[in-house]
Design brief:
With about 170 residues, the chain is of the alpha/beta class. About 20% of the residues lie in helices and about 35% in strands. Strands 3, 4, 5, 6, 7, 8 and 9 form a seven-stranded mixed β-sheet that branches. Bound molecules: inosinic acid and magnesium ion (MG). Inosinic acid binds next to strand 7 and helix 3.
Length: about 170
């Protein structure tokens, strides 16, 4: 299967994605029983995962999308810009930030800093994929669908140069 100039092969099937999502949804539903968490999916990559996750939760939720873009700076620090920031209504709420993948954790670290300044009641992080070997963040990824190695993946919301987000399975470069 080709996305732009690269060949990809199936890495994680639809059934495995559904199972990972189901397990995460079960844990969140148990942990937040009796509460109404505010889900903040991070655009663009998490829109597919978030739409499946929210339909599997047995607790009521509210949803507020956010979008932060990271740029590679000249120094190793990089820079993150808010395209669609956390809304003021996170104040006093139990917030769950929903990501497609946490890699270095750099963008999430920045987002969590912004989020905490708005005084939410609690903050947890949920990521469908987590790359522990490249992670350098100081936060905990509370809900992980699946840990992977350093491979580059596309599909189920994740892109390669903006393409491949609509693929039903997750693919890895051949
Ligand atoms: P981090 O700041 O290094 O954790 O990067 C997180 C962002 O990088 C994710 O939200 C993705 O948009 C992107 N990313 C990291 N790894 C992959 C991958 O394997 N495939 C597609 N996008 C990725
Ligand atoms: Mg992303």
């Amino acid at each position: 299967m080709k996305v732009r100039d690269k060949e990809f092969k199936v890495f994680i099937s639809e059934a495995e994605l559904a199972e990972a999502t189901r397990r995460v949804a079960e844990r969140i539903s148990a942990d937040y029983a009796g509460r109404v968490p505010l889900l903040c999916p991070v655009l663009t990559g998490s829109f597919v995962f978030a739409s499946d996750l929210v339909r599997r939760l047995t607790v009521e939720t509210e949803v507020a999308f956010v979008k932060y873009t990271s740029y590679e700076g000249m120094a190793s620090t990089g820079r993150v810009t808010a395209q669609l920031p956390f809304p003021a209504k996170v104040a006093g709420r139990d917030v769950i930030v929903v990501e497609d993948i946490v890699d270095t954790g750099f963008s999430m670290e920045y987002m969590l800093g912004e989020l905490r300044r708005l005084n939410p009641r609690s903050v947890r992080v949920c990521a469908l994929f987590f790359k522990p070997s490249s992670f350098g963040g100081s936060f905990k990824v509370d809900y992980v669908g699946r840990e992977i190695g350093n491979e580059f993946i596309v599909g189920y919301g994740l892109d390669y140069d903006q393409r491949g987000r609509g693929l039903k399975e997750v693919y890895v470069v051949e």
